[in-house]
Each structure stands twice: as C-alpha cells, then as structure tokens.
From TrEMBL:
GO BP term (any one): riboflavin biosynthetic process
Gene3D superfamilies on file: Cytidine Deaminase, domain 2, Dihydrofolate Reductase, subunit A
Coiled coil: none
Descriptive protein name: Riboflavin biosynthesis protein RibD
Residues the entry annotates as binding Zn(2+): H50, C75, C84
Cofactor(s) required for function per UniProt: Zn(2+)
Positions annotated as active site in the UniProt record: E52 (proton donor)
Chain sites annotated for binding substrate: S168, R184, L204, R207, E288
Pathway: Cofactor biosynthesis; riboflavin biosynthesis; 5-amino-6-(D-ribitylamino)uracil from GTP: step 2/4; Cofactor biosynthesis; riboflavin biosynthesis; 5-amino-6-(D-ribitylamino)uracil from GTP: step 3/4
Length: 362
C-alpha cells in the first residue's frame, strides 16, 4: 500500500466519527512500520484521546521508527488533552505524513514545525482535498468564529419548494429523506424559521439511521409565537433554543419551565446570532427552512454549502426562494458544483459559493 492508500484508510477512520467530535475536528490516524499496520485510531469525541494517541497506544513499542499517517496536522497546545506532537516525539516515530494543515490559528504550521525540530521527517499534502473537505466545518468555525452553515433544499424541477398553500410533503424521495437525516447527524444544530414550526410541527431529530446524539434545534421566532404544545417544546428528545425579540414574560416563563432555552435579541441579526451559536460550541449549523429563512442566509452571504435535492416533479405555481434583491442575470449568485449524485429518483447537488475564498488552492 502506498502513502495515498494509508491516508485513505486514515480518512475512512475519521469519517466514522463525523459530526460526533464537535467542537473538535474529525481525525483519523494509521501507524505503519516496515509495511505493516501496527496502529489505528480516530478521535472519538471531545475530551477523549486524539487519533494519534489512540493509534500510538495500539502500536506500543512498534511505534518507534514507524511512519504515522494522520488526516490533520497534530496539535501543539494543551486543551482537554495534551499535545499530540509530544506523544509522537516520545514514541520516537521516524516520519509523519499529514494530509492537511490545521487552519486553527493556535496550531497552523506549529505542529509540523515542532516535529521537524525534533528530527522527525514530515510530508504534507497527501489527499489534501479530501482531508480539507472532511474538516471544512471545523476550519470555518475556528477562522470565522461562526458555525459552518449548510443550507438544505428539496425542490421540483421547476424550482418550487412547496405549493402556494405551503404543502411540501413530500417533494423528495424516501432515499433523499433518509440522507437528510445523515446531514442532521453531522450537524451540531438544525435551524428553521417559525413559519416552518407553525406549518409542519417538525421534530428536527435524527431518525431512520443509527445515531449517538441529537443536534440542538434552533428556531428563529421574532414574536415568540412557538406553540407550547409543539413537538420542539414538549418531546424532550433534544435541546431546543428559541431566538426571539418580542418580550412575553408569561410565555417565556412557560417555555423555560419546560426546558426550552431562550435567546433574546433586540433585533435578530444573523451575523450576531451565528457568533452566539459559535460561543455555544455549535460548529456546524444545518438550515432546513423555510423559504424566507434560507433566502435570508443566502442574501446575507452567511452560508458555506448548499445541498439541493431535485425531484423529477413539476409544480407550476408554488413557493420558491425570494428576496435576494437580484434584478439582472449578470448579478446572479454564481455557485460551484462540488458533487452530484442520484438518490432514488432524485438528483442531489452540493454547491459552494464561487466568491468564497478558499483557504487552500486546487
């Protein structure tokens, strides 16, 4: 197996924990000595040993003189756990192959430098693109001080996300809806506007797939209209955070008594809201709707990925994105297609903004 093969294995280990390590990155590690894999590891969750430490412990004495393949630059700082660079140096490894440099200002380049100063050979950039995309949410979180924002839309071929009456169940196929639960599982929080709550009474929980935790549910509700008997308030399955402006003391008291978290803002500003969510360790935010809420995130440029489920259906009149303030084709927002695949009868497209300045060049 060559370097790319070992790194591919490390990436597959990391993906097992995608969405479960927040606010930490997702990392996998493989230790190889004389062509034999002697240690495997991944970071299980925040506060647990990092991938390098797990793999080194499995390797034991065989780590000395070995080559270590790790999907992210080893850390150099004390957090909930000691620095991984120190563990690698103590283990007397010969070489460390790093897929991508950590974009965290506390680490960026320092881990590589410390290993080199200790006489360890360091190679970087093996499967860099794959490793970057795996932790793109974490990189956004540590550099922009806000969550990575994924927008999710299900639409017909003619671009409608609901009928004029608001009915949208179901535009997408069962396979697409199951995949949408994977998106929830990988997010720290799921956000909707109050209109979605009033119309659909959603639970916004992970179902239909294996899961270990539920994302926090965030509702933008300026006038605090969320019903006391709604599932988001009553089901107790996951934490619900309601963001509101209009004070209603008795309603607030009732919601707090039922375990709902409240965030009061004199005026709901998405930039400020995202900053507050980041301070609450929300690393990845999945915005599920409705049309006005998604349109607002797009208009304000506060998104990083759009996952678009397109069903082979025609609706004609219906609800679509609006309020983007675009009057000419030349002013359209240009998107870059990152991935496209089929789920059941639907096509799924993953887009990123063209104007987004990438931290790495490909």
């Amino acid at each position: 197996m060559n370097e790319a093969g070992y790194m591919s294995l490390a990436l597959s280990l990391a993906r097992r924990r995608k969405g479960l390590t927040h606010p930490n990155p997702t990392v996998g590690c493989v230790v190889v000595r004389e062509g034999e894999i002697v240690g495997l590891g991944y970071h299980e969750r925040a506060g647990y040993p990092h991938a390098e430490v797990v793999a080194l412990e499995q390797a034991g004495d065989r780590a000395e003189g070995a080559t270590v393949y790790v999907t992210l630059e080893p850390c150099t700082h004390f957090g909930r756990t000691p620095p991984c660079t120190d563990a690698l140096i103590r283990a007397k490894v010969k070489k460390v192959v790093v897929a991508v440099q950590d974009q965290n200002p506390m680490v960026r380049g320092k881990g590589i430098q410390k290993l080199q100063e200790a006489g360890i050979e360091v190679v970087t950039g093996v499967l860099e693109r794959e490793a970057y995309e795996l932790n793109e949410d974490f990189f956004t979180y540590v550099t922009k001080k806000r969550p990575y924002v994924t927008l999710k839309l299900a639409q017909t071929v003619d671009g409608k996300i609901a009928t004029l009456s608001g009915d949208s169940k179901w535009i997408s196929s069962p396979q697409s809806r199951r995949f949408a639960h994977r998106l929830r599982a990988e997010a720290t929080a799921v956000l909707v506007g109050i209109n979605t709550v009033l119309r659909d009474n959603p639970s916004l929980t992970v179902r239909h797939i294996p899961f270990e935790r539920q994302p926090t549910r965030v509702v933008i509700d300026p006038e605090l209209d969320i019903p006391i008997d709604s599932d988001l308030v009553r089901d107790g399955i996951a934490q619900t955070l309601v963001v509101f402006s209009q004070r209603k003391p008795s309603k607030e008291e009732g919601l707090l008594r039922l375990g709902v978290q409240l965030l009061h803002m004199e005026e709901i500003d998405l930039t400020e809201l995202l900053g507050e969510l980041a301070r609450r360790d929300i690393l990845h935010l999945l915005v599920e709707g409705g049309a006005y809420t998604v349109s607002t995130f797009i208009r304000e440029g506060l998104w990083d990925r759009l996952v678009l489920f397109q069903a082979p259906k025609l609706l004609g009149e219906g609800v679509s994105l609006s309020g983007l303030g675009i009057e000419r084709i030349s002013d359209c927002l240009n998107l870059k297609l990152r991935k496209g695949y089929r789920l059941g009868e639907d096509m799924v497209f993953e887009y990123v903004p063209v104007m987004e300045r990438r931290l790495l060049k490909w």
